[in-house]
Amino acid sequence: MKKQLFIFIRKEFAHVMRDSKTLLVLFGLPIVQILIFGFALTNEVKNAKIMVVDRAHDVYSQQLIRKIEASRYFEIKTDGISNSNIEENFKAGAIKVALIIPSNFNQNLLHENAAELRIVADASDPNTANTLTNYLSSIIMDFQNEVNIHTTLPYKIIPEIRMLYNPQLKGVHNFVPGVMALVLMLVCVMMTAISIVKEKETGTMEILLVSPFKPILVLISKVIPYLILSLVNVCTILLLSVFVLNLPVNGSLLLLFAESTLFIITCLSIGVFISVKTDSQQTAMLISMMGMMLPTILFSGFMFPIENMPLPLQIVSNIIPSKWYYVIVKSIMIKGLGFSAIWKETLILFFITIILTGISLKSFKIRLA
Amino acid sequence: MKAVELNEISKTYGKEKTLAVDAVSFSIDEGELFGLIGPDGAGKTSIFRILTTLLIPDGGSATVDGLELVKDYKKIRSRIGYMPGKFSLYQDLTIEENLNFFATVFGTTVEENFELIRDIYVQIEPFKTRRAGKLSGGMKQKLALCCALIHEPKILFLDEPTTGVDPVSRKEFWEMLKRLKSKNITIVVSTPYMDEAALCDRIGLIQNGKMLSIDKPDEIIKSYQNKLYQIKALNKYALLKDLRAMENTLNCFTFGEYLHISFKYESDKTSIELINSLTSLGHSQIEIREITPGIEDCFIQLLKN
Question: What is the pLDDT of residue B236?
């Protein structure tokens, strides 16, 4: 029995290793995803084009402009800009935001203790507009404090903000756990489903079923190679995140691997379930892509905050295993928490796994129909 | 003891209860080479899957090697060899790896039963490090047969083993089956090719899930009721049309360059009268000759009845 299992697993590895396309998907996907999310896709706004209409031309206005120039968020656009028409520039897409300093800025500030500034933002992209006006407001606040350094106001509230776990507000912290959930979901579910359905398509499954080899062992030997390969993927992702994205693992590495193994088993049982219910590789692939990847992206909370969703969707999100895995990975990797903090999520994931494994084992047939 | 025995076996598919196998009963003796002959969709594969315990029949009972089909499926599985119709092995494994894999999965080794496959294996051995996907159709079939034989089964089920294989390889394949038969392995084979039917000990003609006739190929041919003629003229298509329009024509089908025809009423003058009437219809170069019917003629006649 051991010998049979061994040769079967070796055969599965041969299938993967000899197919360059599978290899590419298996090992290329995590690397590409990490790099894309790490460098290309980010919701931080940098070097936004700003147009400053300075009607004052005095000391203070120059000081403010220099301050904006110094920040890495903005890039003051001067060339090719007709000062007269702000809207034209917005329409042409040359600028994202405009700041208008009125002619008597200095005077108003000194003598009336109040000066107005106008900020105009391109809200066709509301998130960016919001972010930019926030950045700009905080620069202006800063500037105001500098100007007021000699005078003391009667009352003053200074909020001291501390961003825990991610002081620089880096997007990386959010998506590395997300990519881990996504890649594992994709690799385990799709690869397992396809590899089993492929045997159905080529007729080798019929032979395996009529062999004295137990059907349950067919399943186990199908699943083990992908478990190992997925753990390799977890390693790749962690190595990339530590050495390329400078995101260290704050918690226990062992715990992280243990939880990942649990999640991988969840995904593998989904894969087996899909393979039982489908007869062609294309269908299996489509179901894994649509049925698994999409909910992972939508409901795991790594792209869209679950708190903002309507209640029915929030309830739906609870049955998505990747949601729980995402929370677990974030807690271990970013917050550096131990098992005591994530036992609830682990337990939920554990039960989902038990149920899914049960269903897929039960639905796996020892005959053809 | 019979190697295989079916008793009123039926199988339906889907919600519409499409009848694939309709109360089929027959038995196969030990050491026999039995052929299941019929067109695509006749129910051959369904019968094979039932006998290899892959499908449960809806009605009837059957035994394989004396074992009850549903109850003893585990025991049956270790005693039979099966080559499914669409079986194409693992394309990305080499000949050697495929053989080793199936030997191990069936709980044996290549060395242990090498004698049984030696004749077949030596033909593909020069390519043993080649991947199965890169083999020709004939070589694939040989390898598949080796894989089905490696655990020394008592009964071998081959579902359309020669479909898509060139004529030379087909001939070789049937010679191999003859040799296996001499080693006392019961072989059940299905084929859509009528010319292969004559090579079996006994054949069953099957159509639309029903067994039309089961007998030795010679006996089936003997049971052909009418005289059969082959006929040829310059314009084959017009000839077929005219012959079918004639009142005395029972059956008329094209067979390569000839037409096969049988008549309702027969006398000594039938063929002469026919030539005369065909000449008057404008046909030339008419040739007519009485022939012994083949399996295909019998099959057509059985379908007509």
Answer: 86
What's the rounded Cα separation, in Å, for the pair B151 and A207? 12
Residue of B89, B93, B102 with shortest CB distance to A14: B93
ipTM associated with this complex: 0.78
Mutate to test the interface with B, among A3, A17, A206, A222 (most CBs of B within 10 A): A206
Confidence of residue A265 (pLDDT cuts 50, 70, 90): very high
CATH, range A48-164: 3.40.1710.10
Residue B198 sits in the same domain as residue B56: yes
Where, residue-wise, is CATH 3.40.1710.10 in chain A? 48-164
Q: In this prediction, what percent of chain B has a pLDDT beyond 90?
A: 28
Q: Which CATH number is B294's domain given?
A: 3.30.70
**Looking at the 3D structure of chain B, how many domains does it have?**
2
For B89-144, what is each residue's pLDDT tens digit?
A: 898 899 999 999 999 988 889 998 888 888 889 989 999 899 998 888 888 888 99
Does one domain contain both B189 and B235? no
Contacts with A204 from chain B: Cβ below 8 Å = 87-90
CA dist., res. B276 & res. A363, Å (int)? 70
B129, B276: one domain: no
Q: Are residues B212 and B254 in the same domain?
A: no
Of B13, B56, B105, the CB nearest to A211: B105
Q: Do A14 and B97 touch (CB under 8 A)?
A: yes
Task: Average the pLDDT over B59-85 and give the result.
Answer: 90
Closest Cβ–Cβ partner in B54, B131, B147 for A367: B54
**Taking CB atoms and an 8 Å limit, are B104 and A7 in contact across chains?**
yes
Q: Domain range for residue B147?
A: 4-222
pTM of this prediction exceeds 0.90: no
- Are the Cβ atoms of B53 and A210 closer than 8 angstroms? yes
Which residues have CB under 8 Å from B229's CB, separation 6+?
B260, B261, B262, B271, B288, B289, B290, B291
Do B162 and B239 lie in a common domain? no
Do A206 and B147 make contact, defined as CB atoms within 8 angstroms?
A: no
For chain B, the C-alpha Rg in angstroms (whole number) is 23
Q: Which among B52, B87, B106 has the least Cβ separation from residue A203?
A: B87
Distance CA B224, CA A161 (A): 100
| pLDDT at residue A258, as a whole number | 95
Q: Phi and psi for B287 in degrees, rounded to 5?
A: -125, 135
Range from A243-257, B32-46, B259-273 carrying the lowest mean pLDDT: B259-273
For B19, list phi and psi in degrees, rounded to 5: -80, 115
* B166 and B280 assigned to the same domain: no
Check whether residue B216 and residue B250 sit in a common domain: no
Domain boundary at B222, B246, B261, which?
Answer: B222
- Distance from the Cα of residue B75 to its chain's centroid: 27
- Supply φ then ψ for residue B11, to 5 degrees: -150, 130
Residues B162 and B244 in one domain: no
Place of tokens 């098992």: A339
